[in-house]
């Protein structure tokens, strides 16, 4: 039995209109609560790193110095950006089985993820975090920062 050539059009199936192209895989979008769980796991992971760092530096665990706090904030930002560009997911997203993808199906770029993580998440949180809550009622489960960066969070 011969296998069909990937360049040949497929025969129509059922009542699906024939376009001559292979059907795209339907994405299952990740909603608000699974994304929230991933965020909580990321916060826990980062806090463990910060506690160890503060112990090694001899800092007060409850009130680290301003310099250490600024460094930790910068480290958090770098963590979210680098993990999302390189892997498409942070540790929390890996644990919950979700991933950030571009709407056009291309690879995540530094520009789109920096837009998503910096101004995007700032704007999402400005007014009572409504930008984050949008993922709960949007048809494609997009938060405001996903709309700004043309990304989606999907289940893998």
Polypeptide structure, described:
This protein has 156 residues and is mainly α. Helix 2 packs across helix 4. The longest helix is centred in the first third of the chain and has 26 residues. The protein starts with 31 loop residues before the first helix and ends with a strand. The N terminus is likely disordered.
Q: What descriptive keywords fit this protein?
A:
mainly alpha; disordered N terminus; 6% strand; 6 helices
Summarize it.
It contains six helices and two strands, in the order αααβαααβ. It is mostly helical.
What spatial form do the alpha-carbon principal axes imply? elongated
Q: Biggest sheet, strands in spatial order? A: 1-2
The tally of beta strands, per DSSP, is: 2
What is the string of SSEs from the N terminus onward?
HHHEHHHE
Helix % is 40-55%
Question: Which value, in Å, is the CA radius of gyration?
Answer: 20 Å
Please describe the biggest sheet, giving its number of strands, its sense, and whether it closes into a barrel. Answer: 2 strands, antiparallel
DSSP strand (E) fraction? 5-15%
Global structural class: mainly alpha
User: Helix tally?
Assistant: 6
Distance between the termini: 33 Å
Low-confidence stretches: 1-23
SSE arrangement:
Layout: H1 32-57, H2 66-86, H3 91-96, E1 98-102, H4 110-126, H5 130-133, H6 144-149, E2 151-155
Antiparallel strand pairs: 1-2
Helix pairs in contact: 2-4
């Amino acid at each position: 039995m011969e296998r069909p050539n990937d360049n040949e059009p497929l025969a129509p199936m059922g009542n699906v209109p024939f376009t001559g192209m292979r059907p795209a895989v339907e994405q299952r979008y990740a909603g608000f609560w699974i994304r929230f769980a991933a965020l909580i796991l990321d916060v826990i992971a980062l806090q463990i790193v910060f506690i160890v760092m503060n112990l090694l530096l001899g800092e007060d665990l409850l009130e680290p110095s301003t310099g250490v706090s600024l460094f930790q904030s910068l480290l958090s930002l770098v963590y979210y950006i680098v993990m999302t560009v390189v892997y498409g997911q942070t540790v929390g997203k890996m644990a919950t089985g979700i991933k950030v993808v571009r709407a056009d199906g291309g690879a995540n770029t530094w520009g789109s993820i920096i837009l998503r993580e910096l101004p995007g998440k700032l704007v999402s949180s400005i007014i009572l975090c409504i930008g984050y809550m949008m993922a709960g009622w949007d048809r494609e489960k997009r938060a405001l920062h996903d709309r700004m960066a043309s990304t989606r969070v999907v289940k893998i």
